[in-house]
Design goal:
Elements: H1 27-55, H2 68-77, E1 91-98, E2 109-118, E3 123-128, E4 134-137, E5 141-144, H3 148-154, H4 160-173, E6 179-184, H5 185-194, E7 198-202, E8 206-212, E9 218-223, E10 226-230, H6 232-240, H7 251-269, H8 272-275, H9 278-288, E11 292-294, H10 298-311, E12 316-320, E13 329-333, E14 339-343, H11 349-356, H12 361-367, E15 371-375, H13 382-392, E16 399-400, E17 412-415, H14 422-432, E18 436-438, E19 472-476, H15 478-485
Parallel strand pairs: 1-6, 3-12, 15-16, 15-19, 17-18
Antiparallel strand pairs: 1-2, 2-3, 4-5, 6-11, 7-10, 8-9, 13-14, 17-19
Helix pairs in contact: 1-9, 3-4, 5-6, 5-9, 6-7
Length: 493
């Protein structure tokens, strides 16, 4: 009988040692991980902020640079402070562009734009001032305004040539210039590149066969109408071109292109893709450095950006001071044969009115009020003079009544629009310094009350019958002539 084969018994595996039950991560653990991440993030942001502080070339009135640590202290101390002009709902910043090292006339201002921010709405208005505008520069006489930056540096003007330019812009616009920012060509191109380029809506195609090169020669450049993506070098050519075809060969056209590029830079800088990209922010801050100069401190720069970003206004109001039928300026020749631009009326009052009411321009265009001017002065041409001023403001071309009124001492504004042309009436009241008289019922019309109080003015004359289709009738009196003759006139020298 065969013996059955017995299988070798395998030794049993040793029992695993007892283990502790798996415990869930405690809040302390996650706090440590989150804390480490937060510390790393704070360190990164701190380093980025330090670079930005070091890059922003902020100066004082004595032209001394504000140190990084001083800016940090002021950033903390002023975190809840308002900007100059914020209480008046208008912050004005002068933007200046110069050629910089390696360019002919490196300190002459190639670009002069008064940028205004309306904090309550976030709106931005850009008013371009031509570099050939003749102004009185202290110690130099009547000269082109683009010389002021260089002159200010030569005479060690408090705040530098940028502040001298700002002071002159204040005089011609009547607006307080709270801050200035100056940048040279190289810094401008670097910023555009570090933003990853910008998208510009080119209004019309043109060719410029005389664009200046770095070696003081010329080259041919071309731009095609429509949406264009531009790097820094291309954007610089677009804003500098002065000899373009198709109506793009004037300084006024160039100013309009500069405004388009500024809008494109604003859109790109405040886009989510830029704000949430610390690499881009750091690169842009590095672009500033020696290429810029400003009297904006970092806390002011950050608050200004916050106001614009949170305002939600998409469209920028743009205006160029120019010559031509509806412009406030005229062409002239100085004693040395230089081309100059002067105010048509011999004063800067129309320019001041444009600057003061620039945020109302969209409303003025929308209202398109039909204005009739009746001349009740003893001076021929007064009605035409006022009509030209109103056209410069962007108002619909006023009509001058062919039949003069009987002479009267005071100017009157009659509003027949029943409140539908309120922005236009507001501009006219401010410009002429008189209250309008309306055809609204007495109890509803504040203009029909004495000093806008509660007592009806029974001495107000009845409204005259206006020419057909008139929204607003202006009857100008002798006080308007006196206002013209009492203002000193500027002539080229």
């Amino acid at each position: 009988m065969p013996i059955p084969r017995l299988h070798k018994q395998q030794p049993s595996s040793p029992a695993p040692p007892p283990t502790e039950p798996v415990r869930p991560r405690t809040s302390l653990y996650w706090w440590k991980i989150g804390g480490a991440f937060a510390l790393a993030l704070i360190g990164f942001v701190g380093l980025l902020g330090y670079r930005l502080l070091a890059a922003v070339n902020t100066t004082t009135d004595s032209n001394a640079r504000v140190s990084v640590f001083t800016q940090i202290g002021r950033l903390v101390a002023n975190r809840d402070a308002q900007l100059p002009g914020e209480g008046d709902d208008r912050i004005n910043v002068l933007l200046l562009g110069i050629g910089g090292p390696g360019h002919e006339g490196p300190l002459l201002t190639d670009t002069i734009i008064l940028a205004s921010v309306k904090p309550s709405t976030g709106q931005i208005a850009l008013l371009s001032i031509p570099r050939d505008l003749a102004v009185e520069i202290p110690g130099y006489g009547t000269r082109k305004i683009n010389n002021a930056n260089a002159f200010g540096k030569d005479i060690r003007y408090p705040g530098g040539g940028e502040q001298l330019t700002a002071d002159l812009v204040e005089k011609i616009t009547g607006q307080t210039v709270h801050h200035f920012v100056r940048i040279d060509f190289a810094g401008f191109a670097d910023i555009v590149n570090n933003l990853g380029g910008i998208t510009v809506s080119v209004e019309r195609s043109f060719v410029d066969r005389q664009y200046p090169t770095a070696n003081f020669g010329v080259e041919t450049i071309r731009f095609t109408a429509g949406q264009q993506t531009m790097d820094g070098a291309t954007a610089l050519k677009f804003v500098r071109s002065r000899h373009g075809s198709n109506g793009e060969g004037s300084d006024f056209a160039r100013s309009r292109r500069q405004q388009l590029v500024l809008e494109a830079i604003r859109d790109k800088a405040f886009s989510i893709g830029t704000i949430l990209n610390p690499v881009k922010v750091g690169a842009v801050s590095s672009s500033l450095g020696s290429h810029t100069r400003t009297n904006l401190e970092l806390w002011e720069l950050l608050r200004l950006g916050k106001l614009v970003r949170e305002g939600g206004a998409d469209e920028t109001i743009s205006r160029v001071l120019e010559s031509g039928p509806d412009g406030p300026l005229k062409e002239a020749t100085g004693l040395d044969g230089a081309f100059l631009l002067l105010p048509k009326d011999g004063t800067f009052e129309t320019v001041k009115t444009i600057a003061r009411n620039i945020f109302l321009e969209p409303e003025l265009l929308k209202e398109s009020a039909r204005i009739t001017i009746a001349d009740a002065t003893s001076r021929s041409g007064s009605g035409k003079s006022l009509a030209d001023k109103l056209a410069s403001l962007g108002l619909k071309s006023p009509t001058v009544d062919a039949k003069p009124e009987a002479p009267q001492s005071s100017t009157r504004i009659y509003d027949y629009s029943r409140g539908e042309k309120a922005a236009t009436v507001q501009v006219l009241e401010t410009m002429l310094g008189v209250r309008s008289i309306s055809n609204l019922p007495r109890l509803l019309d504040p203009h029909q009350l004495v000093n806008r109080g509660d007592v009806p003015n029974v001495n107000l004359p009845p409204l005259p019958t206006p020419p057909p289709g008139t929204d607003i009738l202006i009857v100008i009196g002798q006080d308007y002539v006196k206002s013209l003759t009492s203002t000193r006139r500027l002539s080229p020298s």
